[in-house]
Design a protein that fits this description.
This protein is of the alpha/beta class. The protein contains 14 helices and ten strands.
């Protein structure tokens, strides 16, 4: 039993007691869902604008040890908010190489157009070439591509035809099927109106039409709109053989579990923070133990909803904080100092919720590190 004094949202201090998590054994069999954890990066302690490659890769090896795939260089890795294309190239290269060594695992890699300046207006041909450059790099290393949304395209594209032109051209040249990522503007306001419309039904039809025009080029769609009903509606309309990867960090247990009409696979940021519980839960699901799956994964939802509370883009701070509490990195820092994006009260609630669902495995270490953060915020 551990006890710590934690700040509350009303300005008071309360004593909080908790038991350390049970330390679940990782599931070594085959999951019945395809699952990728969008992984965070660890900056260098002395130079927060550089990456600590050893710690960053060690965390990926930890996720692989839990039988989880890695979604690399995605939004969770501060893509577009500290991680530029130059660093992304190196991150992708290092992770792909590590994935082929003993203890490695599955990887998909984010490709977008962030080598283009968002301060300038670019032509559709320039956007296509930027996508092709990044995809060519990943495919040149025999990697699998996640075709991320493009802020540059969102700036100049205004119609379904604009998006269709870019996606059709890029998809026509890929060597193997890609995952299309639909990221909502709650994660990135610059993507408002992506696909040429703010209406979900109209935007969904644009994506479905792109998939239909490019058979065999799309493995699946990752939808990150934090709306389970929209995801299920689109999931039902996907062509046979095209997967729905949930990006819904609010409703993932239900969406992964599925219903009579189908289920979602997963490419989620929250899996970075709840990896041991997610692995154990997915193992239960693979064994047909739906109740065991629910018992392990459902209690993580309040934690995830808190981490992804508005402004949603700051969720990455919570994931890094959990990794720090559990000893996966030696400092609570992010590239560009973004650890300061959340308040100490917000972090204290993460501590409570993580302890409540059994994620804090070493209570003494977690308390020591939480107290260090409280002291830092007090200065």
């Amino acid at each position: 039993m551990g006890t710590i004094s934690l700040p509350t949202e009303n300005g008071s201090i309360e004593e909080f007691s908790f038991e350390p998590g049970p330390g679940l054994a990782s599931y070594t069999g085959e999951f019945t869902r395809v699952v990728y954890a969008a992984a965070h990066i660890v900056p260098d302690h002395l130079n927060p604008n550089e990456i600590d490659w050893e710690a960053t890769l060690n965390y990926r090896k930890y996720l692989w040890s839990l039988n989880l795939g890695i979604a690399e260089a995605m939004d969770t890795a501060q893509r577009g908010s500290g991680l530029d294309w130059g660093l992304s190239r190196e991150l992708i290269s290092r992770t792909l190489k590590a994935s082929r060594e003993p203890g490695g695992g599955r990887v998909v890699c984010g490709c977008t157009t962030d080598q283009l300046s968002t301060e300038q207006v670019h032509s559709f041909d320039e956007i296509i070439q930027a996508y092709q450059e990044q995809i060519g790099f990943v495919e040149g290393m025999s990697g699998t591509v996640v075709m991320m949304a493009s802020r540059t395209l969102a700036r100049v594209g205004s119609t379904a035809d604009d998006y269709g032109k870019v996606y059709d051209c890029v998809l026509s040249g890929v060597k193997s099927p890609v995952i299309i990522h639909w990221l909502g503007d709650m994660f990135d306001p610059a993507l408002k109106g992506y696909w040429g419309s703010t209406d979900f039904e109209a935007a969904m039809q644009v994506v479905l039409s792109i998939i239909e025009r490019n058979p065999g080029k799309v493995d699946g769609v990752k939808i990150s709109l934090l709306d389970k009903d929209k995801e299920i509606r689109m999931r039902k309309r996907l062509p046979d053989g095209v997967r729905m990867y949930t990006g819904d960090d609010f409703n993932y247990p239900e969406l992964i579990r599925g219903d009579g009409s189908g289920y979602s696979d997963a490419l989620l940021g929250i899996l970075d923070g709840i990896a041991p519980l997610a692995s154990a839960a997915l193992g239960k699901l693979a064994e047909g133990d739906v109740e065991g799956y629910n018992q392990l994964l459902e209690p993580t939802v309040p934690l995830s909803r808190h981490i992804f509370t508005e402004p949603t883009a700051h969720y990455k701070t919570g994931l890094v904080f959990l990794a720090y509490l559990n000893g996966h990195q030696e400092h609570f820092q992010m590239v560009g100092g973004q650890e300061s994006n959340r308040s100490i009260e917000h972090l204290a609630e993460i501590f409570r919720l993580a302890a409540g669902c059994g994620l804090l495995l070493d209570s003494d270490k977690a308390i020591q590190r939480m107290n260090a953060i409280i002291a830092k915020f007090s200065t």
